[in-house]
Amino acid sequence: MQEEIKTLLKEQGFTPTKKRLAILDVIFKIQPASVNQIINSLPEIDRATVYRTIDLFIDLNIAKKVYTGFKYRIELGDSFQEHHHHLTCLRCKTVMDVQTPEIEFAIDQTTKNNGFRPMRHDLEIIGYCANCS
Amino acid sequence: MQEEIKTLLKEQGFTPTKKRLAILDVIFKIQPASVNQIINSLPEIDRATVYRTIDLFIDLNIAKKVYTGFKYRIELGDSFQEHHHHLTCLRCKTVMDVQTPEIEFAIDQTTKNNGFRPMRHDLEIIGYCANCS
DNA sequence: TTCAGTGCAAAAGATTTGCAAGCCG
DNA sequence: CGGCTTGCAAATCTTTTGCACTGAA
To answer: Can you tell me the distance from the alpha carbon of A61 to that of B106, in angstroms, rounded to the nearest whole number?
Structure first.
């Protein structure tokens, strides 16, 4: 996947620098990752660079913003991992990924009914996980 | 609805002041409203008060935060308007409300399958509306 | 009168920007 | 070499806080 993204960057005229790949790596490992988590994981990289890199990744659909709870986080885009949604536990703060064909289908229906052409969507479900219930 | 919320505030030990009701009014009129829209609509109210009031409304489930596009906005909570989701147009920026029983049902199934007890959820669909497609 | 509510100014936090210096092809 | 990348510091923007003053019951 690193290779894939390196190629993508080059194709689009950007350099796959070490820092960019390091940031990618952190996102991959702790996704969904808050900007601060990324910044703190990479003290040798300036925050401005982190922000600029995140913006670049989002522009190129390498990553996207999602809202778990009340702040946004970054995770890989749909091209680089299965499309999924999140169940966030209010108590233990765990974020569980779920694949949900039924929901995808229902969303499709809804947009069709409204003549809307969906480009992306984000669903966040907040509550209590099995352990904390 | 104003009356209902006045009563709710009193019951919870808060005062339904003019400023709070003015803020409520703005939210009602331009929901989903960004914090800045609210602040700019009410130049006579200090921003700190606006923030504090929004927090209060959210605590009491009078309002909630939603994420249309890349920043959050405020709208009335489910007790004070039909539960719905948003179709946000990338081009004209219009936010259309949609009621979606199929989606609600599918979300219910998904959470059940995972032993998850949902408290709330937020779905945002981004794309192009019928006019802009 | 009394305490919640508010304004004000400052602090804290998050994000962006301009510019000079560094790095990669 | 030449231009994309990055660091640094400052500027902006957003949100929070302490404290004194105001207003409603």
So the answer is: 27
